[in-house]
Amino acid sequence: MTTPLGPTVGTTGGSTTSPLGPALGKEDFLKLLVTQLQNQDPLSPMDGSEFAAQLAQFSTVEQLIEIGSKLDAQAANIAQGSLTTQTMLGASLIGREVMLRGATLGTDGSTPPRIALDLDAAAGQVIVEVLDAQGGVLATQTFDDLPAGRGVIDLDGISLPAGQYNYRVSASAPDGTAVTATGYTVGRVQGMSFVGGEVALRIDGTLVPMLDILEVLSADPPSGQSTSTAGAPTP
Predict the structure, then answer these.
(1) Please, are residues 108 and 162 in contact by the beta-carbon 8 Å criterion?
(2) Domain 97-234 falls in which CATH fold?
(3) Per the count of CB atoms within 10 A, which of 14, 28, 98, 156 is most buried?
(4) pLDDT tens, position by position, 170-217
């Protein structure tokens, strides 16, 4: 059964409730005030201070309503401007590689997958393990002597069927102590859409909020030039 979104008329008996009328405006307030003055007791007219207080109250309420209307209009303009800016920026990102939160990678089965790593300190060894849906290790690649900081690396020593995978990374310093390593997702923006009034980018087939992007990577290098910041993989 489909539930209607709009109001429906009941079929059972009983009293009905009339909808509330519109809120009183300043014209209504002035009419009430004039009516009150016209019908006041001549022997006991309204006190001047009471009349002044009502006028002051009316003026205050009118100013608050006007301020509220201006704030609503300003908020709407800001929201529209933000959406316009996001739309222009999102369109400019189509075809570019971006970095996102989350340790995932995608591959078409022929091109080596790319990931981004952030190391708190220089690492003597970094181990990247690609996982299956159950968390088992599908493939492993080891890198030696990576500098501290964030960088993009190519997993050119790993061969995987086309698809999306999770991965985990561990790192150690030359003296064997653990180094904190954070993995990120690297993907290419294929298109743009609107979801819930916000701009979303299609990255490797998945819609991602544009505000989730951490970094826009440089354009593709000339053929034969690597953008990997990692050392050579260890067999």
Answers:
(1) yes
(2) Immunoglobulin-like (2.60.40)
(3) 98
(4) 999 999 999 999 999 999 888 888 777 788 888 887 888 888 888 888
Name the residue ranges covered by the structural domains of the chain: 97-234
CA distances (Å), origin 149, targets 104, 122, 182, 221:
19, 8, 10, 21
* Max Cα–Cα distance, the chain, nearest Å: 107
Helix (H) or strand (E) holding 181: strand 181-195
- CA torsion angle 197 89 112 105 (round to 10): -30
Non-local CB neighbours of 124 within 8 Å, separated by 6+ positions: 144, 145, 172, 173, 174, 175, 176
Model's pTM, two decimal places? 0.56
At 57-69, the pLDDT tens digits run: 777 777 777 787 7
Would residue 92 be called left, alpha or beta, if left means φ above 0 and alpha means ψ between -120 and 50 degrees? alpha
For strands 104-107 and 233-234, give the pairing. Answer: unpaired
Token pair, residue 135, equals: 């968390």
The amino acid sitting at 114 is: R
